[in-house]
Specification:
heterodimer, A: alpha+beta, 5-stranded antiparallel sheet, 22 helices, about 50% helix, about 20% strand, B: 7-stranded mixed sheet, 6-stranded parallel sheet
């Protein structure tokens, strides 16, 4: 509403008071004026009568003797009074004797009917703009009826008779002037009082009502516009002051409530969960922004449409339908997980809670739906389960591989020793021994792959250019693959390097390509691409449970082969899972790929459709990220030495083989079958040994505990860790704490001798 | 208490009753009636007292204000009095028609005016002071006075002539101004200013009517001209002196005349006599302002100091 100045309480009050004051002043002034004028007239009347009576008394002689001269003298005296307009004397017959008049002519006879009326007065025009007033008084005189009266001094002896009349006319000029002054003075005083009182009233009202009200109005306006920080300081103690302080409290309370509501509103609006409110008929009256994200429907589209159509956007879920309907129509709270579809048809999995909202009377006024898209969580849960499964398989495979490696190490060792004894004999025996060595080599390679999957395998980290690696691979494939297979490539220029074991990654890519070739028995297109990619947290989460955000190099190996169904795709990384014919595959190829990539901090993404083909995307972290540097492999050379070496290993045949191998190279070997015994030997004379070869996995005192005990006894003693497992956390810790090196079982004689030489000479 | 108040009222009534009603105040069959205008007026009461001193308390006294003229005449006719003493002009006016009973009057300025042509039964005492008395007294008080002014109307022409005669014998010149109406009096007095040494007032109603007396006295004061008045009243008003008859003695004079008539003298022989005894009143302040003193020769002067 537009505020007008004349709507103001205090302005109208002021106008009212001013009008009332004006009226009061007018009445009062009018009354005062009339009183003043009346008093003046009374004064005039008294004066006129007095003058007339005086003239009559003084004029007795003149009138009595009809002496104009005598009267004229009296008249001249009296006319000196400036307000006296006329003095005249008349005889008893009211005929003029003599007189004097300032203006006009004197009447020849007295114009009075009642001659006895001595106080009468009448206003007459004086011809000069002022009324004049005339007064008459009889001239009395004593009359002696008899001569006796002349002697008598008794009262009443002489008769008093009227012998004539004196007339006095007073000019109204002075009284008119006085009246005019009186009017002006009265009006001025009235005006002054009215203006003063109005001004004071204005000041008072303005201070007491106007200003506080304006502040209140301003504050109310501000609050209306949402600015609740209003504190009015009106500084008056009247009702408005009380109103203002109540207002301040109200505005503070409103502010707090507003902040509370704002907080709630922000929480609701910013919630990642869908919050939707429907009226009792089930029609939406509110949805938050998350609603659009979940359903694909905008707020404007959704409002005033049934909640049901969003709560259950895919049919065929009878149990959920009943539950939702109950919740909406009856007001019972319900929790459920339902399958849904977005506006664009994309499937969703949604966890919903529908509950009633009651007003203060306990009546159900709204239904509240809180919903969350749990598709991603579902996927991550599945990914976690898969990871845990792979982890379990890896552990199992690693254990098996460890035992195998120990056995193979024994076989290799004995075979090596046998070859050494029979060297130079030639013939079939040498040939057979060589075959044993080849077979154990293959077996070792197999366990190596198994360990690769189990991420226990030994590897050597270096800076690699994936483009170079892929180029080399394509060169190799071009020569070996069927000509019906066309190889396409797209290698991103300026691709960042990766930190990886080149051999293992090469093996990975080769395995992938071989699988692709096998999927295209009738030929097709093999595509190799590299891209630099950067994953943020959200996209990293999309790729899987253990994927870390950061920069990666993406290597895509895609074929146009047979493709896989969903069931196959889920299991392809499991060890010994194969779709190939018996004898054609070990089922360890992709398991190894999975293990190696995982071991490098990367991950694999697979997309496949039966009949169309498969696409494997391998992601490896770039070299500018944190990575491990492994020891460098020394040059191969025939090594010999004469130091004393303590071998601690629970496998008797390994102790024997290793003792033989080292002794043949000139070393003195002392063996211990477990950690306790090894430590006991060292405790006898720690400086007897130059080096300890320590198995990691032992019953009783473990390799790690033994290492710590060795360091206690002699901190500078060189310790080489040996294990059938790959390099893991414990080994890294021991290396960090002063272990001199690590060697993976099984190993050839030369390999261990090089390692020992390296440790002893470094 | 109430009966006592009633008794007092009855007693007062008994005391008052002889003074009221038509009955004569006193009736002792002396054959003399006294008719008075109004006993409430002091000079009349004094005159009544004087008469009764001479004729005795047995004379019947009537107050004229209680009777109409005809009733009064009828009463007097019925009683057949031998003589009637009359006090006041009203009573004399009413009884002047009586021809067969002697009427002896007083307190009338000029009783002769009431007597018809050849009427012999009226006699009495006049009121005015003989001019010779006044002039003599004036001469005694202010010996330097040569010219005395008099204003008069035709009614007083006899008195004025007498005055002029007496004055002349004393070497005093009377400057008389005759007027026809009261209105001329002031101008007449005014015309005497600067000419006369004193003003002698005579009992003339035309000359002394209205404010004329005031004027004369004021003029006297302004011009230092002594005024000789008619009675004590004039002295109080500022006149130098007044020579006035003695009312009681005037009553005794009338009583004496009544007794002489009853003894056989005719009223005509007694005629009208001036008063025998006068009182001289002097305003001492006026006297001082004129630089005069009361001489030792002037006996029985009654001084008045305002």
């Amino acid at each position: 509403m537009k505020f007008k100045i004349f709507d103001s309480i205090y302005v109208t009050t002021l106008i009212g008071i001013t009008i009332a004051l004006f009226l009061l002043s007018a009445v009062f002034t009018g009354f005062s004026l009339s009183q003043g004028i009346r008093l003046q007239e009374e004064g005039l009347q008294k004066r006129g009568n007095s003058l007339a009576a005086n003239a009559a008394a003084l004029g007795e002689l003149g009138v009595f003797s009809d002496n104009r001269e005598m009267l004229q003298q009296l008249i001249d005296n009296m006319m000196q009074e400036k307000d006296v307009a006329e003095i005249s004397f008349y005889n008893a017959q009211t005929q003029l004797i003599t007189g004097n008049r300032r203006y006009g002519t004197i009447g020849q006879s007295l114009e009075r009917g009642a001659q006895n009326d001595i106080v009468g007065w009448t206003a007459v025009e004086a011809g000069v703009g002022y009324a004049s007033y005339y007064f008459t008084a009889p001239v009395f005189s004593e009359q002696h009826s008899s001569a006796l009266d002349l002697f008598s001094d008794a009262p009443g002896s002489a008769k008093v008779v009227i012998i004539g009349w004196a007339k006095v006319e007073l000019s109204g000029k002075d009284i008119a002037e006085e009246n005019r002054k009186l009017v002006i003075r009265s009006l001025a005083i009235a005006l002054f009082i009215v203006l003063s009182v109005s001004a004071l009233t204005y000041l008072f009202l303005s201070r007491q009502i106007g200003r506080p009200l304006r502040r209140l109005m301003g504050a109310v306006k501000e609050i209306g516009q949402g600015n609740f920080s209003q504190n009015i300081d009106v500084n008056v103690s009247n009702e408005i002051g009380v109103l203002a302080s109540e207002f301040n409290r109200m505005s503070l309370s409103l502010k707090e409530r507003e902040e509370e509501l704002l907080k709630l509103a922000k929480a609701v609006e910013g919630a990642e969960d869908v919050i939707a409110i429907a009226d009792v008929d089930g029609y939406l009256v509110y949805v938050n922004p998350a609603f659009e994200t979940l359903t694909g429907y905008g707020r404007d589209e959704a409002l005033n449409t049934p909640l049901m159509s969003y709560a259950l956007s895919e049919e065929g879920q009878d149990e959920a339908a009943v539950s939702i309907k109950t919740a909406i129509e009856i007001g019972a709270a319900r929790n459920m997980v339902v399958k849904g579809r977005k506006k664009d048809g994309a499937p969703t999995l949604v966890a919903e809670t529908i509950s009633p909202i009651y007003n203060e009377k306990g009546e159900r006024v709204y239904s509240l739906m809180i919903a969350r898209d749990i598709s991603e969580r579902d996927r991550l849960e599945k990914s976690l389960i898969q990871s845990q499964k792979m982890e379990a398989i890896g552990t199992l495979a690693g254990g098996v591989a460890h035992d195998f490696n120990n056995i193979l190490a024994g076989i290799m060792g004995y075979n090596g020793l046998l070859q050494g004894r029979l060297a130079g004999e030639g013939g079939k025996v040498t040939e057979y021994l060589q075959a044993v060595e080849n077979l154990t080599g293959r077996a070792a390679s197999l366990t190596q792959q198994l360990l690769g999957f189990a991420r226990r395998g030994k590897y050597k980290i270096e800076t690699l250019s994936m483009n170079t690696l892929v180029e080399e691979l394509i060169g190799f494939l071009g020569e070996t693959f069927d000509r019906r297979i066309t190889i396409h490539r797209h290698l991103a220029p300026g691709l960042p390097d990766v930190l990886a074991d080149g051999n293992q990654i090469h093996q990975v890519l080769l395995n992938m390509c071989i699988n692709a070739r096998d999927a295209m028995p009738d030929g097709g297109i093999l595509t190799l691409e590299t891209y630099p990619v950067e994953l943020d947290k959200a996209s990293a989460d999309r790729y899987g449970y253990e994927v870390m955000p950061g920069r990666y190099v993406e290597i895509i190996i895609a074929d146009t082969g047979t493709g896989m169904d969903e069931a196959t795709r889920k299991r392809i990384f499991e060890p010994f899972f194969t779709t190939k014919d018996p004898g054609k595959g070990t089922g360890l190829g992709l398991a190894m790929v999975f293990g190696i990539v995982k071991n490098h901090g990367g991950f694999i993404n697979v997309y496949s459709e039966p009949g169309i083909g498969s696409s494997f995307k391998i992601y490896l972290p770039t070299s500018d990220r944190e990575g491990n540097n492994d020891e460098k492999q020394g040059e191969r050379a025939m090594i010999r030495g004469n130091e004393t070496i303590l071998v601690i290993d629970d496998e008797p045949f390994l102790r024997d083989v290793l003792g033989e191998m080292l002794a043949s190279a000139g070393y003195t070997v002392v063996s211990a079958e477990n950690g306790e015994k090894g430590i006991a030997l060292l405790a006898e004379d720690a400086h007897k040994f130059d080096m300890v070869i320590l198995d990691l996995i032992m019953p009783g005192m473990s390799g790690k505990k033994s290492f710590e005990a060795i360091k206690e006894l002699r901190s500078d003693l060189k310790v080489l860790i040996s294990s059938g497992y790959g390099q893991d956390g414990d080994i890294q810790e021991m290396l960090d704490n002063g272990a001199s090196g690590f060697i993976q079982k099984p190993y050839l004689q030369n390999t261990i001798l090089e390692k020992i030489h390296g440790v002893l000479t470094n | 208490m109430r009966s006592r108040i009633a008794l007092i009222i009855i007693l007062i009534g008994c005391l008052i009753s002889p003074l009221s009603g038509f009955a004569p105040i006193v009736n002792a069959n002396t054959g003399i009636a006294i008719v008075v205008d109004d006993t409430a007026l002091k000079p009349y009461a004094e005159a009544l007292e004087g008469i009764k001193e001479r004729v005795g308390v047995g004379a019947d006294v009537y107050e004229m204000r209680e009777y109409s003229a005809s009733d009064m005449l009828r009463v007097l006719e019925k009683k057949r009095y031998n003589a009637v003493a009359v006090i006041g002009p009203e009573s004399l006016g009413a009884l002047a028609t009586i021809r067969n009973t002697p009427l002896i009057s007083c307190m009338v300025v000029n009783p002769a005016d009431y007597a018809g042509h050849s009427q012999k039964n009226i006699s009495g005492v006049t009121m005015y002071t003989p001019p010779a008395v006044s002039l003599r007294s004036l001469r005694q008080l202010a010996p330097a006075i040569k010219r005395v002014g008099v204003v008069y109307s035709a009614a007083s022409s006899t008195l004025v002539s007498e005055t002029m005669r007496d004055a002349e014998s004393m070497g005093i010149k009377i400057m008389a101004k005759s007027i026809d109406s009261p209105g001329q009096a002031i101008d007449a007095f005014k015309s005497l200013e600067g000419i006369v040494d004193a003003i002698l007032l005579i009992p003339d109603t035309t000359a002394l009517s209205g404010p004329s007396l005031d004027y004369v006295l004021l003029s006297s004061f302004r011009n230092n001209i002594p005024v000789v008045g008619l009675s004590f009243k004039y002295v109080k008003m500022g006149a130098l002196m007044a020579i006035s008859f003695d009312s009681k003695d005037m009553g005794r004079q009338v009583g004496d005349m009544t007794l002489r008539i009853l003894d056989g003298e005719s009223p005509a022989s007694l005629s009208f006599q001036p008063p025998r005894r006068f009182n001289i009143y002097v305003n001492e302040k006026t006297l001082e302002s004129l630089g005069l003193k009361i001489p030792s020769s002037l006996k029985e002067v009654k001084g008045y100091r305002p």
